[in-house]
Amino acid sequence: xxxxxxxxxxxxxxxxxxxxxxxxxxxxxxxxxxxxxxxxxxxxxxxxxxxxxxxxxxxxxxxxxxxxxxxxxxxxxxxxxxxxxxxxxxxxxxxxxxxxxxxxxxxxxxxxxxxxxxxxxxxxxxxxxxxxxxxxxxxxxxxxxxxxxxxxxxxxxxxxxxxxxxxxxxxxxxxxxxxxxxxxxxxxxxxxxxxxxxxxxxxxxxxxxxxxxxxxxxxxxxxxxxxxxxxxxxxxxxxxxxxxxxxxxxxxxxxxxxxxxxxxxxxxxxxxxxxxxxxxxxxxxxxxxxxxxxxxxxxxxxxxxxxxxxxxxxxxxxxxxxxxxxxxxxxxxxxxxxxxxxxxxxxxxxxxxxxxxxxxxxxxxxxxxxxxxxxxxxxxxxxxxxxxxxxxxxxxxxxxxxxxxxxxxxxxxxxxxxxxxxxxxxxxxxxxxxxxxxxxxxxxxxxxxxxxxxxxxxxxxxxxxxxxxxxxxxxxxxxxxxxxxxxxxxxxxxxxxxxxxxxxxxxxxxxxxxxxxxxxxxxxxxxxxxxxxxxxxxxxxxxxxxxxxxxxxxxxxxxxxxxxxxxxxxxxxxxxxxxxxxxxxxxxxxxxxxxxxxxxxxxxxxxxxxxxxxxxxxxxxxxxxxxxxxxxxxxxxxxxxxxxxxxxxxxxxxxxxxxxxxxxxxxxxxxxxxxxxxxxxxxxxxxxxxxxxxxxxx
Length: 698
Known about the structure:
This protein has 698 residues and is mainly α. The protein has 3 domains: 5-77, no CATH class; 98-190 and 249-357 and 387-491 and 568-690, Up-down Bundle (Growth Hormone, Chain: A), CATH 1.20.1250.20; 199-246 and 493-565, no CATH class. It contains 28 helices and 7 strands. It has helices at residues 5-14, 22-36, 58-66, 98-112, 115-121, 123-130, 134-159, 164-182, 192-196, 206-209, 216-219, 235-238, 250-266, 269-280, 287-298, 301-313, 335-350, 385-396, 399-420, 422-430, 434-462, 467-485, 487-490, 569-585, 587-595, 603-619, 621-632, 649-679; strands at residues 518-520, 525-526, 536-537, 544-545, 557-559, 634-637, 644-647. The strands form 3 sheets. The chain has a 3-stranded antiparallel beta sheet, with no helix packed on it. A two-stranded antiparallel sheet has the order 3-4. It has a two-stranded antiparallel sheet with strand order 6-7. It is elongated, with a radius of gyration of 31 Å.
């Protein structure tokens, strides 16, 4: 309950005008409310700022105006009460501190950052289940960015006026629900039954007989359905390299919708989180360490998602034992379990964030203390669309901010597409199953991502890096990435070689409509059991026997490609971990660089604008572009769906790595220009606390 006018008059009588400061008036009003106030009063009160004006309040009013409020208005501030509604026990108030908030939201952020990598680890299974091409899965990833774009700028600007912890909590809950709904795509049976081999248990079923040499004539409905494998032809001639165009089913659109919703609710999390920390931290120079600690926790999301992906990839989509090898092109992992786990974990871990107050109490010895308690009432807001446009114009007039923005979107384009399809690249390049790739990179990435992000924040704090230091760090990082990633061209494998039947071999009429790559006992790859001359198969189609074209004694083949003996897999993993570590070193400096190029009141909008542009021109088109590039290297398409069965490894490597390297060269040039402006044109001379504001137009 607010103090009445008589109470205010009593305060006027007790304190002379020269002593009537905010702290004194608030302290006295608190004693009156608790000891001598009217009956029925409680701990909650609010006092309009304009009723208390003393000569010592100029600094406080300046800080108040910097938060976006108008001098002398009726706006009120909430401080310090930890809880939800009337449930704010005294024992819980010790928890209302910034480090605990950083840790709590970092835990929720782990699962919000896990969904994208989980999707990347399950691309192969999802494509086989739903009959999607890599371009289609790229569209799903881009849908997340479309949702992001719809809300990031407005959310960043308006969100800082809301109760930030509660806003972040509700957003995380909605994000978790969208992940759970995506798991419903498992109900789609399009392509799944044929690919998973559920019908192969019956020896007389066409799904088993179609692969055999002796069964060809009885299986084909008409001559027009078959393209015989000509003698001496290679696998690309045998397979129909023309991409089929099957219709997209409802599960694809469900993925698109949920991905867009997830993008909306997570769009403003980093800008609001950064603004909350910057606004409540005691010493601005320590904000980098707090942000680094939280981001270090969040980077555990990708490796956890990768390891979770490894587990679900080892389980059949129908949760039953099929005896099928994971290298079999018909294998579909239980991808949907991963989406359920991530969604539920995100919801549960977000709930504690709801309890944090709008403003965390600061130390009592700081000059900008206001010993206010939380006001549950509405806050009067004076900011309008014209203020937003004015702030936007102000930040876009800063040359360093604009160049930093362009640098960020270039980096986002390179990283988004490469990271989204990195596991698919490794599966194709080294002939590994999704589980093998996930296990190989999951554990090392945990340490490289977390240690890189935390170390980057620690170095930034210890060196008190300002704008100049952050730009130098960014340039060195980009050069190192450019040089090390050249090793990807070396650590690659040659194209898969297939057996080519000769004229001296008994001819089998084999159809390109029945591709099933198999490995023979002679360690040769065959386009199908039919090409190998196999006439029999085991009951679950895991071994084809009586293969006349094999020179081995057993004359049998099994689904999957033979191990080609490529020795570079572990070297590639080590290089990828080194690149991940170096990339994470620059996360905190890049954030600090962005917010140090604008005024403090514009930091949240600057972060939101930078994220908007990076998404619009970086992360949104990148998965689609990379997906098109990957599809262009496909040699054999599945006749029963829109996904690729066989890629040209050398073309895949050249385009996948080469595109990123060419763009990286441009990124190095751009950062060099920024550094030239800082050093030669004297933008951003360092000040105390690492803040560089003399390049900012006031």
